[in-house]
Amino acid sequence: MAKAFFRLQKFLRRTQFLLFFLTAAYLMAGSLLLLQRTRLVIQQGSRGTSANQALLVPDGMAGVGIVDSRTLQNPHPGPRLLVGMDALQEPALDPQHSPRWLMSRNSELRQLRRRWFHRFISDQEPMQTAGFKAMKHTAEHKGTYMGCFSDDSRERTLKGAVFYDLRKMTVSHCQEACAERAYTYAGLAYGAECYCGNKLPATASKPEECNSECKGEKGSICGGVNRLSVYRVEELRAGERRRRNVIYRGCFRAPENLTDTFPASLIQPNLTVEMCSEFCSKKEFPLAVIQGQECYCGYPTGRFSLHDGADRLLCSGMHNTSSNTEGKYCLVYQTPVQDTRCTDRKFLTTKSKVFVALSSFPGAGNTWARHLIEHATGYYTGSYYFDGALYNKGFKGEKDHWRSRRTICVKTHESGKTEIEMFDSAILLIRNPYKSLMAEFNRKYAGHLGYATDRNWKSKEWPDFVNSYASWWASHVLDWLKYGKRLLIVHYEDLKQSLIPKLKEMVEFLNMTVTEDRLLCVENNRDGNFKRSGAKQKDFEPFTQEMKDLINRYILTVDEALRGRNLTGLPREYVPR
User: Fold this and answer.
1) Per-residue model confidence as pLDDT tens digits over 546-574
2) Where are the transmembrane segments (predicted)?
3) How does DSSP classify residue 495?
4) For residue 368, which of 85, 95, 135, 490 sits 20 to 30 Å off, Cα-Cα?
C-alpha cells in the first residue's frame, strides 16, 4: 500500500513540474512574439476605474422626470479653462445600476488595446483567395504604368485626394478610387497609401526604389519609402459614368477683385456648372465659382471664407445685365478635389513636455475631434488603445505607444484617479448622453460607420446597456472634474455649430498656432472618414420613459457639477424631446 501511495505521489510531483514548465514556456513564447510584432508595451495590472460605480441620485431627485429646461441654459460663452481643480463631492453607489455591462467595461477596453495582436497575426495568414480576387480585378481594370517617382511629403504633386488602407491596398483599388473622382493619375506609396492628381510628378526615380509590396496584393508593387508607383488611370468602361460629386455650396457676395482672390479662371460662352467644375478639377482646386460666363477656381480663404451666404435669388439675376446685383454675387460649387492645404501630418520631432489627454465618453465624437486636431495642427494624435480600423484610415498615431509623447494629444475613455492623474492636462469632450449612447451602441454592433439592426435595439442588451453606460457617462465627467489638473471643457454640439472658433480654442490649449487658411481647410474637410452617412431613422423610440428618467437625473447631476465649478452648464438640447 505504501509503495502504491509513493508512486502516486511521485507522479503528481512530475505532473506539477510539467504543467509549470509548459506554462512558463507558453508565456515566454508569447512575450517574444509580442516584442517582435510591435513596440507597444501592454501595461500590466488592473486598470479599474471608478466609472464601474454607478451614481446615486439624491432622494430629493428620485421623482424627477423630464428636467426643467430652465435649469439647462445654452452655454454661449463656450469652453473654459480650469486650473488647479479642487475635489468634488463623490456620489454614493447605487447597486441597482451596476450590472454586468459596467462590470465588464474595463476588460472590454483592455481587449480593444490588445486587438492589435490578433490583427497583425492575421496579416501573416495566407491571402490566396484575396490575392486571386485582387489580381483578377486588376486585370479587368488596369491603367498604364508611368514609372517610379520621388514623393515629397511637404509639397506633393499628386494632391487631389488621399486614401489609406494599411491592410488591403491594391493597385486596382487605388486606380478605381482616383478614376471615380475624375483624376488622371493614381500613385501608390509605402504599400498602403494612394494619392490622386492630374499632374505627373516631376522627378523620376530608379525603378528598383519602388519596392514596397501592396498590403492587399502579394506580388504587386505599391511604391516605396518616399516613392510613388504612378499609373495613368484608364477611362471607365462604356456605360459607366464618373462620379463627379459636385456639391452646391451656395450664393455668396463676390470679393472685390476676383482675379486676385482666385488663382485660375476661364471665360466660356454658355458656361455650365459641369464645364466650370471640370476645369477647376483639372487645375486641382476644391472650389468652382461662377459669375455669369466667368469661371474661377480656388480655395476658401480669409477674403472668401464662405461663412456669410446670401439668398440664391440674388445670384439668379447674374445673367441680367440690367440687374442691380450684377457682379456682386457668385455661385459656389465644391469640386471632387480634396482641399490638401491641411492634410500633411507628422509625429512631433521632439517629445512633448506636456502630456495632454483628449478624453470623452465612448460615442462622444472623439475620433472626429482627433481628425480636426490633426488637420489643424499638422501632428498625429495618439490613443490609449489600438484600433486597427482607425489606423487603416490614416490615424497613424494609433500604432505609436500612448506614452511616447510623440503625438499632440492622446485619446482616452478612461476615468478614475490613477488614469486621470497620469496626464498633465486634458481636453474633456462632452456630448448629449442620448446621442452618445446611441452612437456607442451602433459602434458595438456595426462598427464605426454602421448602424445596429432593429433586432439589436429591441433586444434585452439595449436596456442593460443604457442602465450601465448612462452612469458611466456621468461618472466619466465627474471624475475628470475631480482629478483633472488642467481642463478645457468642450461640448460636442458647440464644436459642431461653431467649428472654427471652438477648434481655435482647442489648438491654443495645445499651445499651437495655426493660420486662418489652414483652419478654413479643416472646415472644408470637416467630416473626415468616420462620419455615418445620414441619420438612420427608426420606426420606434429606443428610449423608454424609465430610461429617460434615469438619464435625465444623470444630466442634472453633471449640470450641477459644472455649475458648481463656475462653468457653463450643459446645453439646453440635452433635455430629450
Assistant:
1) 999 999 999 999 999 999 998 888 988 88
2) none
3) H
4) 85
